[in-house]
Amino acid sequence: MADRFAQTHFQPDLLVSSPANRALTTASGHADALGLKPHKIVQDQRHYHASSNDLISLIQNFEDRYECVMIFGHNPGLTYLINDLSGFDLDNLPTCAICGIELNVSSWSDLSNGSGRKFYYDFPKSR
Q1: Which tens digit of pLDDT belongs to each residue from 86-117?
Q2: Rounded to whole angstroms, what are the CA distances from 30 to 8, 51, 60, 64, 116?
Q3: 3.40.50.1240, 3.40.50.410, 3.30.70.1660, 2.130.10.10: CATH of 2-126
Q4: What does the alpha-carbon distance between residue 72 and residue 20 come to, in Å, rounded to a whole number?
Q5: Chain-centre distance for alpha carbon 17
Q6: Which uninterrupted H or E stretch holds 3?
Q7: Which of 36, 42, 80, 103 has its CA 20 to 30 A from that of 13?
């Protein structure tokens, strides 16, 4: 999945991951595929078992110097976050799936439900 995403030429400024082994391993694989240094991965314990509202609160505190951030975490919080931000009607975000949300906000602190739109969605069994 990391290699497939790298072909899009999106270049995140930061990767934020739950410290859980699978999430962190996935984030590290994406950093490698995207040519990002390991220091671009930030672990945040609060992403583990976070609800959509918890994740929105965490995202609202991202520094505005970051324009593109990838989040590596867990369900059901990520599925609900995607649906809440973009209105994408997703039943369940599959393991290792990637969903890109373009946000219509000038600052991370302005993030709220419905403030984005899905522009990318890929998952392992899609091809």
Answers
A1: 999 999 999 999 999 999 999 999 999 999 99
A2: 13, 24, 23, 22, 23
A3: 3.40.50.1240
A4: 10
A5: 9
A6: helix 2-6
A7: 80
